[in-house]
Inverse folding.
């Protein structure tokens, strides 16, 4: 069965970076993009961007350019998102999701990132 | 960016009720509208894709309709497990965007 397994919760200091992972199983990894979504109580769900897992090509929501960097390791069927120059506004739950012809059909369990000094 | 407006923000209903949730796009998004259900502490789950296509494994009491800018999700007979928050999501135009959600609560 399709599964997206994300890494564990992160506690980070302002100004630092975190890199979260999303390991896919149960399907051909390179046949689907991986998307990333941010969820907060205040802003709701925000689409960050996606990565072509075959080519490594990326598209970002303008709002997240410079904040998020998406990469992929095809050998381990894992997608990554690095968040840089963290501020308290980056505290959120971050999800990865599979994106094919029917976008965001399967989601990871989410990673809580807390930015605090 | 396309704004997705969901209404109502909170809907109180009883088991067995038929309910309709609304989602309005600020621009034409053709048929590219998905509906998700999210329960507390869980990831969103895809219910309906491309306006009216039921995702595999989703009960037939869920249905979607609409086109262009106005879309609805209907639950024909509410079950106890349906009380959750529902989000719409457009994937017609970049950046893709979500609605703010409708919380379906027990009356």
């Amino acid at each position: 069965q399709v599964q997206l397994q994300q890494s564990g919760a992160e506690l980070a200091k302002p100004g630092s970076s975190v890199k979260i992972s999303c390991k896919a199983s149960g399907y051909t990894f390179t046949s689907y993009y991986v998307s990333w979504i941010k969820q907060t109580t205040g802003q709701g769900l925000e689409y960050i961007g996606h990565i072509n897992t075959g080519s490594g090509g990326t598209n970002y929501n303008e709002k997240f350019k410079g904040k998020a960097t998406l990469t992929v390791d095809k050998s381990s069927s894992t997608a990554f998102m690095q968040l840089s120059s963290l501020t308290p506004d980056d505290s959120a739950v971050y999800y990865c999701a599979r994106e094919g012809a029917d976008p965001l059909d399967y989601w990871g369990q989410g990673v809580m990132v807390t930015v605090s000094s | 960016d396309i704004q997705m407006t969901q209404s109502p923000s909170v809907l109180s209903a009883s088991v067995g009720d038929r309910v309709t949730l609304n989602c309005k796009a600020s621009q034409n998004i053709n048929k590219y509208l998905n509906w998700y259900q999210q329960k507390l502490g869980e990831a969103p789950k895809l219910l309906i894709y491309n306006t009216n296509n039921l995702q595999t494994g989703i009960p037939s009491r869920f249905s979607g309709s609409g086109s262009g800018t106005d879309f609805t999700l209907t639950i024909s007979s509410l079950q106890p497990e349906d009380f959750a928050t529902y989000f719409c999501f457009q994937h017609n135009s970049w950046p893709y965007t979500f609605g703010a959600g409708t919380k379906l609560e027990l009356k």
Q: What stands out?
A: The mean pLDDT of chain B is 97.
